Structure prediction request, 184 residues.
Amino acid sequence: MTNDPSRTGAPHTTGDFSAAGVRVPDTKPAREATELVRDSTSELIYHHSRRVYFFGALQGRRFLRAHDVPEDGIRRVWTAIALHTTPGIPEFMEPEVALVTAGVEYDVLGIGYHDLPEADRAAVVALHPRPDFKRRILGAFTDGVRTKPDTTFGNVKADVLAHHVPGFERGDFVRTVLDSPWAE
Prediction:
């Protein structure tokens, strides 16, 4: 992939970008992370990732200002990414972890859609458009786990394969317990 913004109409990955009053930090780690995502993923995932950042920040703005949230983050970022498709856990973790999931749920599922003003949604989507997003993101999810269906056990990706891969059989927790090698 290339970092050429004309390829997709995406903004350059450096500089001061903001939407709805949320600013992307102009720091070396932020620029390098943005460039990595931009250069190694599709336009769909790039824009989705950036919208997740904005929507998560918008939803957590009051909470984060009320708490002295530290800037450290390697472990928290990893945890946030690792858990963002596992509902019910991240919301009880560190704010950064909870807000990544909140941003993903907002962008993909529309959870809390009416909690943010229309003008804020429009500002984020103007910067990072959603053309045919629903169909394309489900296709990206399918492509990402089609060859490793066992990784979908216990998370939302099993639903994706059930809808998009003929013959997929999802893992069954009850069956796994009953069929375990334990006598009782």
